[in-house]
């Protein structure tokens, strides 16, 4: 079973969903570390609660992005992490991690890419007035939400209601991410 690390910057509901699916025997992997660039993020509490190690270091305390990623990479290597799963990690992955994990970094994004890449994809979709948006799981490359797509699911916008739309998207994310990892690691 592949060892993976989850990278997150926020609430960590996707981390929780993946962790729960692993525990339930639905995803054939082993979560060994949560990495966050935001030491105050709620994902840290979630990880502690379920007994998974956390690495919470601020990129701003390093002299460069390379130095920050090297510190993360040292920990990943120590724990023999094979896959990096981004779940609300709001930072572009740089050359150090891309070089160490070629085709082994996966991301989830709350839109039907290539529409609405980058920050606040749900806000962008509402602003544009689309009736259908969705969720994308994709391989990570050097671009912003540009790597090869693994899976997508559509979600209908609840017109004028961001909160309800977001709820729908999150529910679909949890389902799609676990299903995709299950397929990826079962072949
Ligand atoms: C998720 O909706 C995820 O798709 C999004 O951040 C949220 C994190 O929620 N990611 C991006 O926007 C990446 N560009 P979570 O912390 O509850 O999993």
TrEMBL record:
Annotated active site: 109
Domain of life, per lineage: Bacteria
Domain Formyl transferase N-terminal: 3-180
Pathway(s) of this molecule: Purine metabolism; IMP biosynthesis via de novo pathway; N(2)-formyl-N(1)-(5-phospho-D-ribosyl)glycinamide from N(1)-(5-phospho-D-ribosyl)glycinamide (10-formyl THF route): step 1/1
PROSITE patterns: GART
Site positions (Raises pKa of active site His): 145
Residue numbers binding (6R)-10-formyltetrahydrofolate: 65, 90-93, 107
Keywords noted in UniProt: Purine biosynthesis, Transferase
Residues that bind N(1)-(5-phospho-beta-D-ribosyl)glycinamide: 12-14
Reactions it catalyzes: N(1)-(5-phospho-beta-D-ribosyl)glycinamide + (6R)-10-formyltetrahydrofolate = N(2)-formyl-N(1)-(5-phospho-beta-D-ribosyl)glycinamide + (6S)-5,6,7,8-tetrahydrofolate + H(+)
GO cellular component: cytosol
Any Pfam family the entry gives: Formyl_trans_N
GO molecular function: phosphoribosylglycinamide formyltransferase activity
GO terms, biological process: 'de novo' IMP biosynthetic process
Transferase as UniProt keyword: yes
InterPro entries the record matches: Formyl_transf_N (IPR002376), Formyl_transf_N_sf (IPR036477), GART (IPR004607), GART_AS (IPR001555)
Transmembrane segments: none
Job description of the protein: Catalyzes the transfer of a formyl group from 10-formyltetrahydrofolate to 5-phospho-ribosyl-glycinamide (GAR), producing 5-phospho-ribosyl-N-formylglycinamide (FGAR) and tetrahydrofolate.
Family from the record: Belongs to the GART family.
Annotated protein name in UniProt: Phosphoribosylglycinamide formyltransferase
Organism: Psychrobacillus insolitus
Gene label: purN
């Amino acid at each position: 079973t592949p060892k993976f690390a989850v990278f997150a910057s926020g609430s960590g509901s996707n981390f929780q969903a993946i962790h729960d699916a692993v525990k339930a025997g639905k995803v054939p992997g082993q979560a060994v570390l949560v990495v966050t660039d935001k030491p105050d993020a709620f994902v840290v509490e979630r990880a502690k609660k379920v007994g998974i190690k956390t690495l919470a270091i601020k990129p701003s305390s390093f002299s460069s992005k390379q130095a920050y990623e090297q510190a993360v990479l040292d920990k990943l290597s120590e724990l023999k992490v094979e896959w990096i799963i981004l779940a609300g990690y709001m930072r572009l992955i740089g050359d150090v991690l891309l070089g160490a994990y070629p085709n082994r970094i996966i991301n989830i994004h709350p839109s039907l890419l290539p529409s609405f890449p980058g920050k606040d994809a749900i806000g962008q979709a509402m602003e544009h007035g689309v009736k259908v948006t969705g969720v994308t799981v994709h391989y990570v490359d050097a671009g912003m939400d540009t790597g090869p797509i693994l899976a997508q699911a559509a979600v209908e916008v609840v017109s004028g209601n961001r909160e309800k739309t977001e709820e729908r998207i999150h529910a679909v994310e949890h389902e799609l991410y676990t299903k995709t990892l299950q397929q990826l690691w079962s072949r």
